[in-house]
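Lab meeting tomorrow. Please check the following:
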Amino acid sequence: MSLEQSIDFKEESNSLYNILKEKNDDVFNSATQFKSWTINDVLYHLHVWNNAAYLSLTDEKKFSKFMEDFFKAIKQGKSARSYEKELSNNKSGQDLLLEWKNGYEKISKEFLKADPKKRVKWAGPDMSVRSSITARHMETWSHGQEVYDLLGIIRDDKDRIKNIVIIGINTFSWTFINRSMEVPKEIPKLILQSPSKKTWEWNLDNTQNSITGSATEFCQVVTQVRNIKDTSLVVRGDTASKWMSLAQCFAGPPEDPPKKGTRFTKEEKNG
């Protein structure tokens, strides 16, 4: 049986590839609204950590060596972006795009046939194969957002973003633990409309806290590509409000969501 999340990851990657495949190389040097990363920077990051996930599945020793070398480079003063560029063979523009494409096709093929429950190493705690490829889907979707925003393209999301919704729900406690805050006892009720207009529901027994609205906007908030105030999500209750103001579905130290009005889709560009 094929691992569905691996197909979702590839399709998400293909969607990002398709909006870039005919762009001029100079477009890849344009700064996005995310920490002024360029499109090249986004692709370096996605490519390197896609490859890391591939190594964690196929060769644990090589993965451990990769992590050792990465942290050593950072300790020696290299920036993560510059080292990721180096690990991407210093390519840029269309050459980098093809390098990334070849990589995500390789990882998707390998994960497709893997045991979903197998445990694999990562920078943080070990995780299942299913969680590993789902995390790659989430990273591709969230970092893809700054590219869509820069190019003035409203993304046509598909129901595969349910993977990201579930990551958002599963990291409810993490949002608070990561900030040394007390974890609320109950996760808010969620009633979300999928891109295909299906209704997705969770935690319906919570009558005090709820979040309703677009599944896409929920994903945007938990991945921190939008401030909750820039969405039309309806948030009720103290716990729900606190969660949506701090939500962080990715690992690493606490990150604050973007300030209201700082992440948005620009007017369409050509190039």
